[in-house]
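Mods, move this if it's the wrong board.
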Amino acid sequence: MPNLTNSITSLLKNTYVPLTVPATNTQTGRATAKATFVRQLSLQSGEVDAAQKGLANSPSAPGAISSDANFWSLLRKFEGTPLASQLPTPSAFAAIQTSDLTAFGNALISVRQQQVDALQSAATPTTGASNSGPATQTLSAALNNLNSAIVALNSLTSNTMTSPIGMLNLERLEMLPAGIERGGLLATIPLAPKERTAVVQKEWSVTTQEFTSIVTDSLDNYSATGVTENTQLSQSTTSQVSHSNQFNINASASGGCGFVSASVATGFTGQDQNSQSATDSRNQAIQMTRQASSRVQQSHKMTISTTTVTGASESTTRMLENPSATDPMRIDYFSLMRKWYVALYRYGLRLTYDITVPEPAGAMRQVYQQLAQLQLKVSQPFAFELEYSAITPANLAHLSETFQAQLPAPPQQLKPQITGPVAVSNLPAPNVDDRDWHVFSLPVNVPDGCWITGVTVNATVETGNSGSYTDHYFMVANTGYYDHGPTTNYTLDFAKGHYSPPGNPEGGPLLTGPIDFMNYQTGSQSFSFFFKEASPATVSVTITTEPTPMAMSAWQSSVWNACFNAAQTNYYAQQQAWNAQIQALQATISGVDTLTLRREENDEIMKSVLRWLLGPNFEFMPQNVINLFKATNGNLQYGVNFTGNDLGPSSLNWNLMSQNEDRISFINQAIDWNNVTYFLYSYFWDVPPSWEFIRQIQHPDSTREAFLRAGSARIVLTVQPGWETAWTYFVEFGSTSMPTPLPSHPYLTIAQQVADYDNTNYPGIPAANPDGGGPIDDNTPQTGTTCDTTLAASSSPVTIVVADSTGFAVGATAIIDSWESGVQETQTITAVPDGTSITVQALGSAHSPVGGQPFPVVQANAKGVLIGEWFEYTPTSGTDIAVSSDLATIA
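Not the wrong board. Structure tokens:
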């Protein structure tokens, strides 16, 4: 059966290869990592001098500083809180020795540890003392500074001890149906001579076409997505550990990377082991072919269901008979297996750079933080803790504002109530000799709900007789008070015990203290006064009142009930609002399509890389540029600042907006952000207080859930072709402008060799678009041979005598010689004269055998370099029948 070339399934994949750099002097470089280390220290004023003094006092300590004064001067610029624009550029750290920074970090940790010990010793805990005083805050700040120094030093140590340089082999897995073959034995029916037997075949359907289509499509698509993601993750992780890729290529016609044999003079070996990549690819092929098989079965089932009725069944009975009278026979049923051809191609090589960042999903966890806080609020029961004693007329307005309620006014509490002045009507006329006592009564009404708490009597009394008596008598009933004298005006404040005027030359007892007169009386009351030898006279009574305890209690009860009802109403309203917010947040979490989820994760990865690669003081948008946006009178929240006809900023201000353009443009161009690989590390690589929260994060998408639960992430940046050396120089020396000549640095050498290897060994191969075709059609095979003759450089076509030219095609690309020879080149094949020679359009270099060994000549496949091929088999829904088949041939 011919291959179904129109049914090819292609899967892009890659194999990450960490490179091991030899023990060379890598003290210099890593400028960005060193600058980030110093910034993370958060140096305080005077700490650099303290650390320098500590190292001077211990010159024999390991890792003593060997740098000159410029080292200390550079560090002092980071003390305090300098502006980001005032800090030295990362390139200033390129020449700083890593050991010097490590020694300084240890010295700084010692200084800060001493500060923490001193503060802890000075602290004297007191029972009931507050934990938020200045001393506690100072100790907390010192502990934070100590922790920052320890974390920064650990990060510097890990980043400088391991090589961040690696390679990413770009690979493609292709599968296509290659035929149908007999599979395993399903059932067998033995028949004796002349024996007859009935075979019943029963078919039934229990679902409708619509249900079958929906369920099959949904499950198949969901399964394909999940299997692909899980397989790629496990494949990448396994390859990271066990796959090694180097530059020497020793392979045979049956596998490997062609007939190229080479070594690289960079200090690290170069042998390409493809077994792990092929094994992982084989596992992927099995799963993908099973999925393809399930899709075939799905189509078959859908076709059947269109002709069946739900719940209907059909039985067919077949009679089998052995026609022989002497020989037995056997009817065998076999499954039909689909044969798949699987090929693994390697079509490109990329330089990679590693960086490990904490909390890659920190920004995405904020919605879970809000959700947890809202759920905690919703779970709290209703509580009302207002005490009756706290309800007073003085704080009535405060209670009304607190509980958002209309509260009843307190019981009436009048100002002092004045009754009178009233003229005494029953006194004799003046100059009438009347020495009898006369009584006068004055009624007073006490307001409802109040009682009397004070009485003041004001009286004007004159002596009315013309005889020898020049004094009069005045008495207030039920008080025990009377007065005899010529005094005209009286003011008697019984609550205060006040008497005016003072003195009583011959009368009764004076008012020397407070008198409980008419206190706590309610309703209508009457005051009586006695006069003798007095005329005329006027009397007024002033009473002060307060609400009674019963009235106050009733008022407090009504206020408490009003506050309770308002608080309960507000509680349920707030609960409803919080539940609405919870539902909105949950919809935000679960109502996002898969493509958007992956895009959001990639954005967070990119943001984390920029933040941790460029240091803590890196600003995505500098403050002066933000101020410029504000000056345009735009809306910062909605991003509609430059929508009018006139942009607003002047040419001078416009330069502020592009101050970081060079660096940001460089990072976006140098890194292939669409092919960034990252490895998620467990939650316990985050701070311990967050462990419980992180472990409980749930998301309907398993990939997003793993991303949210990651404590840290190792991010492998894929460098764009042509940017290998520029990117390596940037991260090692902190500058985007490369000098000429480049400094001697092992990472720069590796970067250049990776670029050269990719350009030489994968000629004419569409790395970014594998389906874009090659030099000739995609069916051009990869084949190889050798040449044992010496060839001279020539600008005209050259015929090369080879061991075997079978498979070579006109128009294909030939890779001539090994990469280690230094003269490997690619040329287009113009002719294949016979079975032992090929003609190429020219030769740029001379080629000759080395040590009597022929050099390789390889024809590149338009699809890439074939590094493995095999067959897979998957079951189908068909069966095959055989009569008395040979048991020895049954698998």
